[in-house]
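hey team, just a heads up i'm posting the complex here instead of the shared drive bc the drive is being weird again. everything in one block, sequence lines first with there labels, then the predicted structure for the whole assembly after. its four chains so it's a bit long, scroll down
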Amino acid sequence: MTKPGKMQSGEKLERYESLWDRPGFLVRRLHQIHVAIFHEECGDFGITPVQFGLLTILNRKSPLDQVTLATEVGIDRSNVADVVARLEGRGLVIRRANPSDRRTRLVSITDDGREFRAHVQKCMEIAQERFLAPLDDEKREAFMLLLRELIEANNDTGRAPLRSSLVSEQ
Amino acid sequence: MTKPGKMQSGEKLERYESLWDRPGFLVRRLHQIHVAIFHEECGDFGITPVQFGLLTILNRKSPLDQVTLATEVGIDRSNVADVVARLEGRGLVIRRANPSDRRTRLVSITDDGREFRAHVQKCMEIAQERFLAPLDDEKREAFMLLLRELIEANNDTGRAPLRSSLVSEQ
DNA sequence: GCGTAACTGTCGGTATACTGAGCGTTCCTT
DNA sequence: AAGGAACGCTCAGTATACCGACAGTTACGC
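-- predicted structure starts here --
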């Protein structure tokens, strides 16, 4: 599997000698590529993939408290606060206190937010398709299935597991 | 392809309605998972995947200037400086001026750095294998091939394209 | 109903990663 | 040989993403 790098004779071959044999390395690089493509396609709107994911969730279901929001988009609860604050600063979402549970703050998408999301949707779709463009339909499908399989199986790792209604049909 | 979420009747279905249909979202989440697993396995060494990738490259070829290093590990040139500075602070690499081209600074791995890399190698391997554990051999191979195909085809995107000797056999 | 456990949000700290700007050096063309 | 282009590096700024710790609130067990 190792690409034919230049192996001097005498070197002993270690497992994962090449970065190209490390799935973690490849996934990091691929994530990087996706972010770059997203910014090329949607950069004019001044939005990031995570911010758009958050708007997508809130567009479907508002209001949500921050922890629920975090588990829907799969980011840390201390991170979701930052992202929400930025979106709130642009008037795309609002946060207000929750009378029935004063620990939580309920986040809702605003009308501006809904309009904005709808405008950005198309370039997001273009970004996704450009990203997968090198693969034919069959490979795309296979790739998506493998991604989902790995994510679902490893979901409990780390501080940002997905508890999406789409994972566990509730 | 959309997972059977709860679709109220009357909602119109948009493309990529679910985050689970967005390859970018899945790759982001999977990258997150890999970092978490890496830290679980290698956290005791106080090292990150990128730092270890850098040590891997320098272990194979030292010295390298920072731009070459950046293109080998696929990170931005303004980012590689940060990572190298951290490794230098721990004595794992050194930077020195290059007499033959005074624009560049040559980065080399130290003896401590080589020893450290060798110690961490095993837990990195464990992390990679744990990451792919949910897939059988055939799927792993398919996944790795798809990752490489997407990366090579999209490599020119963004500010951190890989120009590794392993990509373009030089 | 009281005390403890669990939960939500925030804060500070750290690392990755990018953009854009700027500085000094080197290379190349004329 | 001189001038401009290209290159290597740094810096400031911003966003994602984590951890650990803390305060306030709620829930639960006895």
